[in-house]
Automatic annotation (TrEMBL):
GO terms for cellular component: apical plasma membrane; basolateral plasma membrane; mitochondrial membrane; nuclear outer membrane. Its main location: membrane. The gene is Slc22a3. It comes from Herpetotheres cachinnans. It is found in: Apical cell membrane; Basolateral cell membrane; Mitochondrion membrane; Nucleus outer membrane. This is Solute carrier family 22 member 3. Keywords: Cell membrane, Glycoprotein, Ion transport, Membrane, Mitochondrion, Nucleus, Transmembrane, Transmembrane helix, Transport. It comes from the Eukaryota. The lineage of its organism: Eukaryota, Metazoa, Chordata, Craniata, Vertebrata.
Protein backbone atom coordinates (compact mmCIF):
# COMPACT_ATOMS: atom_id res chain seq x y z
CA UNK A 1 0.00 0.00 0.00
CA UNK A 2 1.66 3.29 -1.09
CA UNK A 3 1.81 6.27 1.23
CA UNK A 4 0.07 9.52 0.36
CA UNK A 5 3.38 11.28 -0.35
CA UNK A 6 4.35 8.53 -2.80
CA UNK A 7 1.03 8.86 -4.65
CA UNK A 8 1.36 12.67 -4.67
CA UNK A 9 4.81 12.41 -6.25
CA UNK A 10 3.37 10.29 -9.03
CA UNK A 11 0.37 12.63 -9.51
CA UNK A 12 2.56 15.75 -9.43
CA UNK A 13 3.63 17.67 -6.34
CA UNK A 14 3.08 21.15 -7.76
CA UNK A 15 1.56 20.74 -11.18
CA UNK A 16 -1.08 22.66 -13.11
CA UNK A 17 -3.87 21.58 -10.75
CA UNK A 18 -2.11 22.72 -7.57
CA UNK A 19 -1.03 25.99 -9.16
CA UNK A 20 -4.65 26.76 -10.11
CA UNK A 21 -5.98 25.94 -6.64
CA UNK A 22 -3.06 27.82 -5.08
CA UNK A 23 -3.77 30.96 -7.12
CA UNK A 24 -7.50 30.87 -6.35
CA UNK A 25 -7.04 30.38 -2.61
CA UNK A 26 -4.33 33.05 -2.44
CA UNK A 27 -7.03 35.63 -3.21
CA UNK A 28 -8.22 35.02 0.35
CA UNK A 29 -5.03 36.73 1.50
CA UNK A 30 -6.19 39.95 -0.18
CA UNK A 31 -9.60 40.02 1.50
CA UNK A 32 -8.12 38.98 4.86
CA UNK A 33 -5.66 41.87 4.73
CA UNK A 34 -8.61 44.22 4.07
CA UNK A 35 -10.21 43.04 7.31
CA UNK A 36 -6.91 43.03 9.21
CA UNK A 37 -5.95 46.66 8.44
CA UNK A 38 -9.31 48.30 7.69
CA UNK A 39 -9.49 50.10 11.05
CA UNK A 40 -6.95 52.63 9.75
CA UNK A 41 -9.54 53.92 7.26
CA UNK A 42 -12.78 52.99 9.04
CA UNK A 43 -11.55 54.82 12.14
CA UNK A 44 -10.03 57.96 10.62
CA UNK A 45 -10.20 60.90 13.00
CA UNK A 46 -12.72 63.50 11.74
CA UNK A 47 -11.16 66.64 10.31
CA UNK A 48 -13.45 69.11 11.99
CA UNK A 49 -15.95 68.74 14.82
CA UNK A 50 -17.14 70.58 17.90
CA UNK A 51 -19.41 70.20 20.88
CA UNK A 52 -22.88 71.70 20.52
CA UNK A 53 -24.72 73.46 23.34
CA UNK A 54 -27.86 71.29 23.86
CA UNK A 55 -30.39 73.99 22.93
CA UNK A 56 -28.32 75.26 20.01
CA UNK A 57 -30.06 73.06 17.43
CA UNK A 58 -33.50 74.57 18.13
CA UNK A 59 -32.09 78.09 18.31
CA UNK A 60 -30.16 77.57 15.08
CA UNK A 61 -33.34 76.45 13.33
CA UNK A 62 -35.31 79.45 14.69
CA UNK A 63 -32.60 81.91 13.74
CA UNK A 64 -31.78 80.32 10.39
CA UNK A 65 -28.09 79.92 11.22
CA UNK A 66 -25.79 77.80 9.09
CA UNK A 67 -23.59 75.30 10.91
CA UNK A 68 -20.65 77.68 10.52
CA UNK A 69 -22.61 80.57 12.07
CA UNK A 70 -23.71 78.39 14.97
CA UNK A 71 -20.11 77.40 15.51
CA UNK A 72 -18.95 81.03 15.48
CA UNK A 73 -21.50 81.91 18.16
CA UNK A 74 -20.64 78.98 20.44
CA UNK A 75 -17.10 77.70 19.85
CA UNK A 76 -15.28 80.86 18.76
CA UNK A 77 -15.95 82.74 22.04
CA UNK A 78 -14.84 79.62 23.89
CA UNK A 79 -11.53 79.55 22.04
CA UNK A 80 -10.96 83.27 22.45
CA UNK A 81 -11.69 83.26 26.16
CA UNK A 82 -10.26 79.89 27.12
CA UNK A 83 -7.20 79.31 25.01
CA UNK A 84 -6.67 75.83 26.47
CA UNK A 85 -10.03 74.65 25.14
CA UNK A 86 -10.67 73.84 21.48
CA UNK A 87 -14.41 73.34 21.80
CA UNK A 88 -14.10 69.66 20.85
CA UNK A 89 -14.35 68.06 24.28
CA UNK A 90 -15.79 70.97 26.26
CA UNK A 91 -18.61 73.44 25.74
CA UNK A 92 -19.98 76.57 27.40
CA UNK A 93 -22.20 75.60 30.31
CA UNK A 94 -25.04 77.94 29.39
CA UNK A 95 -28.78 77.57 28.80
CA UNK A 96 -30.35 79.01 25.66
CA UNK A 97 -34.09 79.53 25.62
CA UNK A 98 -36.62 81.46 23.54
CA UNK A 99 -35.45 84.80 24.98
CA UNK A 100 -31.97 84.48 23.52
CA UNK A 101 -31.13 86.96 20.77
CA UNK A 102 -30.31 85.54 17.37
CA UNK A 103 -27.88 88.37 16.65
CA UNK A 104 -25.88 88.00 19.86
CA UNK A 105 -26.79 84.89 21.85
CA UNK A 106 -24.14 85.48 24.50
CA UNK A 107 -25.28 89.04 25.17
CA UNK A 108 -27.39 87.81 28.09
CA UNK A 109 -24.15 86.95 29.86
CA UNK A 110 -22.82 90.46 29.60
CA UNK A 111 -21.61 90.50 33.19
CA UNK A 112 -19.14 87.74 32.36
CA UNK A 113 -16.22 87.93 30.00
CA UNK A 114 -15.89 84.91 27.74
CA UNK A 115 -12.91 83.76 29.84
CA UNK A 116 -15.14 83.52 32.91
CA UNK A 117 -18.05 81.68 31.35
CA UNK A 118 -18.47 78.22 32.94
CA UNK A 119 -17.40 75.13 31.01
CA UNK A 120 -18.63 71.54 31.09
CA UNK A 121 -17.49 68.29 29.48
CA UNK A 122 -19.16 67.21 26.26
CA UNK A 123 -21.01 63.89 26.29
CA UNK A 124 -23.08 63.27 23.19
CA UNK A 125 -23.68 66.57 21.43
CA UNK A 126 -20.90 66.57 18.86
CA UNK A 127 -21.36 68.08 15.41
CA UNK A 128 -19.24 66.81 12.48
CA UNK A 129 -18.72 68.42 9.12
CA UNK A 130 -18.64 64.89 7.62
CA UNK A 131 -20.85 62.84 9.95
CA UNK A 132 -20.58 59.49 8.12
CA UNK A 133 -16.95 59.58 7.04
CA UNK A 134 -15.74 57.14 9.71
CA UNK A 135 -16.92 55.08 12.67
CA UNK A 136 -15.43 57.78 14.89
CA UNK A 137 -18.01 60.34 13.78
CA UNK A 138 -20.76 57.72 13.37
CA UNK A 139 -20.56 56.50 16.97
CA UNK A 140 -18.96 59.55 18.69
CA UNK A 141 -15.64 57.81 19.45
CA UNK A 142 -13.95 61.08 20.43
CA UNK A 143 -12.70 62.70 23.63
CA UNK A 144 -13.56 60.43 26.56
CA UNK A 145 -14.85 57.77 24.17
CA UNK A 146 -11.65 57.60 22.09
CA UNK A 147 -10.60 54.34 23.76
CA UNK A 148 -13.57 52.62 22.09
CA UNK A 149 -11.75 52.82 18.75
CA UNK A 150 -8.94 50.78 20.33
CA UNK A 151 -11.61 48.39 21.57
CA UNK A 152 -13.01 47.86 18.05
CA UNK A 153 -9.63 46.59 16.80
CA UNK A 154 -9.01 44.56 19.96
CA UNK A 155 -12.42 42.90 19.51
CA UNK A 156 -11.49 41.98 15.92
CA UNK A 157 -8.28 40.33 17.14
CA UNK A 158 -10.22 38.56 19.88
CA UNK A 159 -12.36 37.18 17.06
CA UNK A 160 -9.19 36.02 15.30
CA UNK A 161 -8.14 34.23 18.48
CA UNK A 162 -11.54 32.57 18.92
CA UNK A 163 -11.61 31.60 15.23
CA UNK A 164 -8.17 29.99 15.43
CA UNK A 165 -9.38 27.55 18.07
CA UNK A 166 -13.04 26.97 17.14
CA UNK A 167 -12.77 26.89 13.35
CA UNK A 168 -9.34 25.25 13.49
CA UNK A 169 -10.93 22.40 15.43
CA UNK A 170 -13.96 22.37 13.11
CA UNK A 171 -11.71 22.15 10.02
CA UNK A 172 -9.99 19.09 11.51
CA UNK A 173 -13.34 17.49 12.32
CA UNK A 174 -15.66 18.43 9.45
CA UNK A 175 -13.32 19.18 6.58
CA UNK A 176 -11.17 22.00 5.23
CA UNK A 177 -13.26 23.14 2.27
CA UNK A 178 -16.57 23.05 4.18
CA UNK A 179 -15.24 25.31 6.93
CA UNK A 180 -13.53 27.54 4.35
CA UNK A 181 -16.80 28.11 2.47
CA UNK A 182 -18.83 28.64 5.65
CA UNK A 183 -16.20 31.11 6.86
CA UNK A 184 -16.36 33.07 3.59
CA UNK A 185 -20.15 33.22 3.90
CA UNK A 186 -19.84 34.33 7.53
CA UNK A 187 -17.34 37.11 6.74
CA UNK A 188 -19.60 38.46 4.00
CA UNK A 189 -22.83 38.41 6.05
CA UNK A 190 -21.21 39.85 9.20
CA UNK A 191 -19.49 42.52 7.11
CA UNK A 192 -22.83 43.71 5.74
CA UNK A 193 -24.36 43.82 9.24
CA UNK A 194 -21.33 45.78 10.52
CA UNK A 195 -21.85 48.36 7.75
CA UNK A 196 -25.46 48.98 8.82
CA UNK A 197 -25.06 48.48 12.59
CA UNK A 198 -27.60 50.73 14.39
CA UNK A 199 -25.29 51.25 17.38
CA UNK A 200 -21.74 50.61 18.53
CA UNK A 201 -22.64 47.48 20.51
CA UNK A 202 -24.04 45.74 17.42
CA UNK A 203 -20.99 46.95 15.50
CA UNK A 204 -18.65 45.30 18.02
CA UNK A 205 -20.59 42.01 18.17
CA UNK A 206 -20.51 41.49 14.42
CA UNK A 207 -16.96 42.79 14.06
CA UNK A 208 -15.96 40.07 16.53
CA UNK A 209 -17.83 37.47 14.45
CA UNK A 210 -16.23 38.82 11.29
CA UNK A 211 -12.87 38.26 12.98
CA UNK A 212 -13.84 34.67 13.86
CA UNK A 213 -14.86 33.84 10.29
CA UNK A 214 -12.02 35.87 8.77
CA UNK A 215 -9.45 33.80 10.65
CA UNK A 216 -11.30 30.70 9.43
CA UNK A 217 -10.82 31.71 5.78
CA UNK A 218 -7.14 32.55 6.22
CA UNK A 219 -6.30 29.43 8.21
CA UNK A 220 -8.13 26.90 6.08
CA UNK A 221 -6.91 28.31 2.75
CA UNK A 222 -3.33 28.01 4.03
CA UNK A 223 -3.91 24.43 5.22
CA UNK A 224 -5.57 23.31 1.95
CA UNK A 225 -2.70 24.70 -0.11
CA UNK A 226 0.03 23.12 2.05
CA UNK A 227 -1.75 19.75 2.11
CA UNK A 228 -2.08 19.31 -1.67
CA UNK A 229 1.53 20.17 -2.55
CA UNK A 230 4.69 18.14 -1.99
CA UNK A 231 6.67 18.32 1.23
CA UNK A 232 9.49 20.18 -0.56
CA UNK A 233 7.21 23.12 -1.41
CA UNK A 234 7.61 24.81 1.97
CA UNK A 235 7.80 28.29 0.45
CA UNK A 236 4.09 28.37 -0.46
CA UNK A 237 3.41 30.02 2.91
CA UNK A 238 5.74 32.88 2.01
CA UNK A 239 4.11 33.30 -1.41
CA UNK A 240 0.63 33.48 0.18
CA UNK A 241 1.94 36.42 2.24
CA UNK A 242 2.61 38.28 -1.02
CA UNK A 243 -1.13 38.30 -1.72
CA UNK A 244 -1.73 39.63 1.80
CA UNK A 245 0.67 42.45 0.90
CA UNK A 246 -1.22 43.12 -2.36
CA UNK A 247 -4.36 43.59 -0.26
CA UNK A 248 -2.53 46.10 1.94
CA UNK A 249 -1.61 48.04 -1.22
CA UNK A 250 -5.14 47.91 -2.69
CA UNK A 251 -6.92 48.98 0.51
CA UNK A 252 -5.91 52.69 0.43
CA UNK A 253 -7.17 52.90 -3.17
CA UNK A 254 -10.59 51.61 -2.07
CA UNK A 255 -10.66 54.03 0.87
CA UNK A 256 -9.67 56.95 -1.37
CA UNK A 257 -12.43 56.25 -3.90
CA UNK A 258 -15.20 55.50 -1.37
CA UNK A 259 -16.14 58.52 0.79
CA UNK A 260 -18.04 56.81 3.63
CA UNK A 261 -16.99 54.15 6.10
CA UNK A 262 -20.09 52.06 5.27
CA UNK A 263 -19.04 52.01 1.61
CA UNK A 264 -15.51 50.93 2.53
CA UNK A 265 -16.87 48.19 4.82
CA UNK A 266 -19.11 46.83 2.05
CA UNK A 267 -16.32 47.03 -0.54
CA UNK A 268 -13.97 44.90 1.59
CA UNK A 269 -16.66 42.42 2.72
CA UNK A 270 -18.70 41.61 -0.40
CA UNK A 271 -15.84 39.95 -2.36
CA UNK A 272 -15.95 37.09 0.14
CA UNK A 273 -19.20 35.90 -1.45
CA UNK A 274 -17.29 35.24 -4.70
CA UNK A 275 -15.22 32.59 -2.92
CA UNK A 276 -18.36 30.47 -2.57
CA UNK A 277 -17.83 29.62 -6.26
CA UNK A 278 -14.79 27.61 -5.18
CA UNK A 279 -17.20 24.84 -4.17
CA UNK A 280 -17.02 23.67 -7.80
CA UNK A 281 -13.26 24.06 -8.39
CA UNK A 282 -11.40 23.45 -5.09
CA UNK A 283 -11.53 19.87 -3.76
CA UNK A 284 -11.43 18.66 -0.18
CA UNK A 285 -7.92 18.02 1.12
CA UNK A 286 -7.08 14.37 0.31
CA UNK A 287 -4.77 14.26 3.34
CA UNK A 288 -7.70 15.16 5.57
CA UNK A 289 -9.94 12.57 3.90
CA UNK A 290 -7.35 9.90 4.68
CA UNK A 291 -7.24 10.88 8.36
CA UNK A 292 -11.05 10.45 8.40
CA UNK A 293 -10.79 6.97 6.83
CA UNK A 294 -12.25 8.13 3.49
CA UNK A 295 -9.61 6.59 1.26
CA UNK A 296 -11.87 6.11 -1.79
CA UNK A 297 -12.72 9.82 -1.99
CA UNK A 298 -9.06 10.72 -1.49
CA UNK A 299 -7.99 8.37 -4.28
CA UNK A 300 -10.61 9.79 -6.63
CA UNK A 301 -9.27 13.32 -5.99
CA UNK A 302 -5.69 12.11 -6.56
CA UNK A 303 -6.68 10.63 -9.94
CA UNK A 304 -8.26 14.00 -10.82
CA UNK A 305 -5.09 15.85 -9.78
CA UNK A 306 -2.94 13.51 -11.89
CA UNK A 307 -5.23 13.98 -14.90
CA UNK A 308 -5.03 17.79 -14.72
CA UNK A 309 -1.27 17.62 -14.23
CA UNK A 310 -0.87 15.49 -17.33
CA UNK A 311 0.38 12.58 -15.22
CA UNK A 312 -0.70 8.97 -15.05
CA UNK A 313 -1.66 7.37 -11.75
CA UNK A 314 -1.27 3.60 -11.66
CA UNK A 315 -4.69 1.93 -11.73
CA UNK A 316 -3.56 -0.71 -9.22
CA UNK A 317 -3.66 1.90 -6.45
CA UNK A 318 -6.73 0.83 -4.53
CA UNK A 319 -5.83 2.21 -1.13
CA UNK A 320 -3.52 4.87 0.29
CA UNK A 321 -1.97 5.01 3.73
CA UNK A 322 -0.98 8.16 5.58
CA UNK A 323 1.93 7.97 7.92
CA UNK A 324 2.68 9.90 11.06
CA UNK A 325 -0.86 10.47 12.25
CA UNK A 326 -1.14 13.01 15.00
CA UNK A 327 -1.34 12.09 18.66
CA UNK A 328 -4.95 11.95 19.77
CA UNK A 329 -4.92 14.61 22.50
CA UNK A 330 -1.77 16.76 22.46
CA UNK A 331 -1.40 19.22 25.32
CA UNK A 332 0.78 22.19 26.22
CA UNK A 333 2.84 19.90 28.47
CA UNK A 334 3.94 17.97 25.38
CA UNK A 335 5.54 21.18 24.08
CA UNK A 336 7.52 21.98 27.25
CA UNK A 337 8.32 18.55 28.69
CA UNK A 338 11.86 18.30 27.25
CA UNK A 339 14.59 21.02 27.38
CA UNK A 340 14.91 21.93 23.68
CA UNK A 341 11.17 21.70 23.03
CA UNK A 342 10.57 23.96 26.02
CA UNK A 343 13.12 26.54 24.86
CA UNK A 344 11.81 26.50 21.29
CA UNK A 345 8.20 26.85 22.40
CA UNK A 346 8.77 29.81 24.74
CA UNK A 347 10.93 31.69 22.20
CA UNK A 348 8.45 31.07 19.37
CA UNK A 349 5.52 32.23 21.50
CA UNK A 350 7.37 35.47 22.26
CA UNK A 351 8.34 35.87 18.57
CA UNK A 352 4.71 35.51 17.43
CA UNK A 353 3.52 37.99 20.08
CA UNK A 354 6.21 40.55 19.23
CA UNK A 355 5.82 40.28 15.44
CA UNK A 356 2.04 40.78 15.55
CA UNK A 357 2.12 43.60 18.10
CA UNK A 358 4.78 45.60 16.24
CA UNK A 359 3.37 44.92 12.77
CA UNK A 360 -0.16 45.98 13.71
CA UNK A 361 1.20 48.90 15.73
CA UNK A 362 3.18 50.24 12.75
CA UNK A 363 0.21 49.78 10.40
CA UNK A 364 -2.22 51.62 12.70
CA UNK A 365 0.39 54.31 13.48
CA UNK A 366 0.04 55.54 9.90
CA UNK A 367 -3.45 56.75 10.83
CA UNK A 368 -2.20 59.14 13.54
CA UNK A 369 1.11 60.59 12.31
CA UNK A 370 -0.33 62.97 9.72
CA UNK A 371 0.82 63.28 6.12
CA UNK A 372 -0.94 61.73 3.15
CA UNK A 373 -2.49 58.63 4.73
CA UNK A 374 -3.42 56.97 1.43
CA UNK A 375 0.00 57.38 -0.17
CA UNK A 376 1.91 56.51 3.00
CA UNK A 377 -0.19 53.38 3.49
CA UNK A 378 0.37 52.28 -0.11
CA UNK A 379 4.14 52.80 0.16
CA UNK A 380 4.27 50.93 3.47
CA UNK A 381 2.47 48.02 1.79
CA UNK A 382 4.71 48.11 -1.27
CA UNK A 383 7.80 47.79 0.92
CA UNK A 384 6.49 44.40 2.11
CA UNK A 385 6.98 42.89 -1.37
CA UNK A 386 10.81 43.05 -1.10
CA UNK A 387 10.44 41.38 2.33
CA UNK A 388 8.99 38.23 0.76
CA UNK A 389 11.60 38.28 -2.02
CA UNK A 390 14.45 38.71 0.48
CA UNK A 391 13.17 35.72 2.43
CA UNK A 392 12.93 33.56 -0.68
CA UNK A 393 16.51 34.50 -1.63
CA UNK A 394 18.11 34.12 1.82
CA UNK A 395 16.47 31.24 3.69
CA UNK A 396 17.89 28.51 1.45
CA UNK A 397 21.30 30.13 1.15
CA UNK A 398 22.01 31.67 4.56
CA UNK A 399 19.49 29.76 6.62
CA UNK A 400 16.49 30.65 8.76
CA UNK A 401 17.97 31.79 12.05
CA UNK A 402 20.24 34.64 10.93
CA UNK A 403 17.66 36.43 8.69
CA UNK A 404 15.08 35.92 11.47
CA UNK A 405 17.34 37.58 14.06
CA UNK A 406 18.62 40.36 11.79
CA UNK A 407 15.11 41.33 10.61
CA UNK A 408 13.95 41.76 14.23
CA UNK A 409 17.02 43.75 15.24
CA UNK A 410 16.80 45.99 12.15
CA UNK A 411 13.12 46.65 12.94
CA UNK A 412 13.99 47.56 16.53
CA UNK A 413 16.84 49.91 15.60
CA UNK A 414 14.74 51.56 12.88
CA UNK A 415 11.90 52.18 15.34
CA UNK A 416 14.11 53.90 17.93
CA UNK A 417 15.87 56.03 15.26
CA UNK A 418 12.49 57.07 13.80
CA UNK A 419 11.32 58.16 17.25
CA UNK A 420 14.16 60.65 17.67
CA UNK A 421 14.49 61.99 14.12
CA UNK A 422 13.26 65.61 13.82
CA UNK A 423 9.98 66.30 12.04
CA UNK A 424 11.64 68.79 9.65
CA UNK A 425 13.36 65.90 7.79
CA UNK A 426 10.22 63.99 6.74
CA UNK A 427 11.88 62.04 3.90
CA UNK A 428 14.51 60.59 6.26
CA UNK A 429 11.94 59.79 8.95
CA UNK A 430 9.75 58.02 6.40
CA UNK A 431 12.70 56.09 4.94
CA UNK A 432 13.86 54.78 8.33
CA UNK A 433 10.28 53.94 9.37
CA UNK A 434 9.86 52.03 6.10
CA UNK A 435 13.00 50.04 6.89
CA UNK A 436 11.45 49.12 10.23
CA UNK A 437 8.28 47.97 8.49
CA UNK A 438 10.38 45.87 6.09
CA UNK A 439 12.21 44.23 8.99
CA UNK A 440 9.15 43.32 11.04
CA UNK A 441 7.35 42.03 7.93
CA UNK A 442 10.26 39.67 7.26
CA UNK A 443 10.21 38.52 10.89
CA UNK A 444 6.44 37.97 10.77
CA UNK A 445 6.71 35.83 7.62
CA UNK A 446 9.73 33.81 8.79
CA UNK A 447 8.23 32.89 12.18
CA UNK A 448 5.54 30.71 10.59
CA UNK A 449 8.08 28.77 8.52
CA UNK A 450 10.44 28.28 11.48
CA UNK A 451 7.54 27.29 13.73
CA UNK A 452 6.51 24.44 11.42
CA UNK A 453 10.10 23.21 11.11
CA UNK A 454 10.83 23.06 14.85
CA UNK A 455 7.99 20.74 15.88
CA UNK A 456 7.70 17.00 15.28
CA UNK A 457 5.00 15.71 12.96
CA UNK A 458 2.91 14.41 15.86
CA UNK A 459 2.75 17.88 17.45
CA UNK A 460 3.22 20.21 14.48
CA UNK A 461 -0.34 21.45 13.92
CA UNK A 462 -1.02 21.79 17.63
CA UNK A 463 2.30 23.56 18.25
CA UNK A 464 1.79 26.06 15.43
CA UNK A 465 -1.81 26.75 16.53
CA UNK A 466 -0.81 27.32 20.15
CA UNK A 467 2.21 29.52 19.41
CA UNK A 468 0.40 31.56 16.76
CA UNK A 469 -2.43 32.28 19.23
CA UNK A 470 0.06 34.68 20.82
CA UNK A 471 -0.09 36.57 17.51
CA UNK A 472 -3.76 37.36 18.15
CA UNK A 473 -2.99 38.32 21.75
CA UNK A 474 -0.43 40.80 20.42
CA UNK A 475 -3.09 42.15 18.06
CA UNK A 476 -5.50 42.65 20.99
CA UNK A 477 -2.92 44.66 22.95
CA UNK A 478 -1.52 46.65 19.96
CA UNK A 479 -4.28 49.31 19.59
CA UNK A 480 -4.38 50.11 23.30
CA UNK A 481 -0.58 50.28 23.49
CA UNK A 482 -0.34 52.46 20.39
CA UNK A 483 -3.17 54.97 20.91
CA UNK A 484 -2.86 55.37 24.68
CA UNK A 485 0.94 55.77 24.69
CA UNK A 486 0.81 58.05 21.64
CA UNK A 487 -1.50 60.33 23.63
CA UNK A 488 1.40 60.83 26.08
CA UNK A 489 4.09 61.19 23.39
CA UNK A 490 3.54 60.35 19.72
CA UNK A 491 6.81 58.43 19.44
CA UNK A 492 6.58 56.53 22.75
CA UNK A 493 5.09 53.38 21.15
CA UNK A 494 8.13 53.18 18.85
CA UNK A 495 10.43 52.98 21.89
CA UNK A 496 8.42 50.03 23.25
CA UNK A 497 8.38 48.37 19.81
CA UNK A 498 12.16 48.80 19.58
CA UNK A 499 12.85 47.08 22.90
CA UNK A 500 10.53 44.16 22.09
CA UNK A 501 12.03 43.63 18.62
CA UNK A 502 15.70 43.71 19.70
CA UNK A 503 15.04 41.27 22.56
CA UNK A 504 13.27 38.97 20.08
CA UNK A 505 16.19 39.20 17.65
CA UNK A 506 18.62 38.07 20.35
CA UNK A 507 16.36 35.26 21.58
CA UNK A 508 15.86 33.65 18.16
CA UNK A 509 19.62 33.17 17.92
CA UNK A 510 19.10 30.46 20.55
CA UNK A 511 16.90 28.47 18.15
CA UNK A 512 18.48 25.65 16.09
CA UNK A 513 19.13 26.14 12.37
CA UNK A 514 16.78 24.07 10.17
CA UNK A 515 18.16 24.81 6.69
CA UNK A 516 18.52 21.62 4.68
CA UNK A 517 17.26 19.43 7.53
CA UNK A 518 14.32 17.05 7.15
CA UNK A 519 11.26 17.89 9.18
CA UNK A 520 11.52 16.22 12.60
CA UNK A 521 9.21 13.24 13.05
CA UNK A 522 9.50 12.77 16.83
CA UNK A 523 10.32 14.75 19.96
CA UNK A 524 13.67 12.93 20.05
CA UNK A 525 14.48 14.36 16.60
CA UNK A 526 13.83 17.88 17.92
CA UNK A 527 16.06 17.27 20.96
CA UNK A 528 18.92 16.33 18.63
CA UNK A 529 18.71 19.59 16.62
CA UNK A 530 21.57 21.92 17.45
Amino acid sequence: MPSFDEVLKEAGEFGRFQKRVFFLLCQTGITFSFLFASVVFLGQAPDDYWCRIPEAAELSERCGWTLEEERNFTVLPLRLGNRSSSGECERLDVVWDASISCASPLAGYGNHSTSNLPLTACHDNWVYKQPHSSIVSEYNLVCGNAWMLDLSQAILNLGFLAGAFTLGYAADRYGRILIYLLSCLGVGICGIIVAFAPNFTVFLIFRFLQGVFGKGTWMTCYVIVTEIVGSDQRIVGIVIQIFFTLGIMILPGIAYLVPTWQGIQLAISLPNFLFLLYYWVVPESPRWLLTRKKGEKALKIMHNIAKHNGKYLSPHYSEITISNEEVSNPSFLDLVRTPRMRRNTLILMYAWFTSALIYQGLVMRLGIVGGNLYLDFFISGAVELPAALLILVTIDRIGRRLPFAISNIVAGIACVITAFLPEDIPWLKTTVATLGRLGITMAFEIVYLVNTELYPTTLRNFGVSLCSSLCDLGGIIAPFLLFRLAAIWLELPLIIFSILAVVCGLLVLLLPETKGISLPETVEDVEQLS
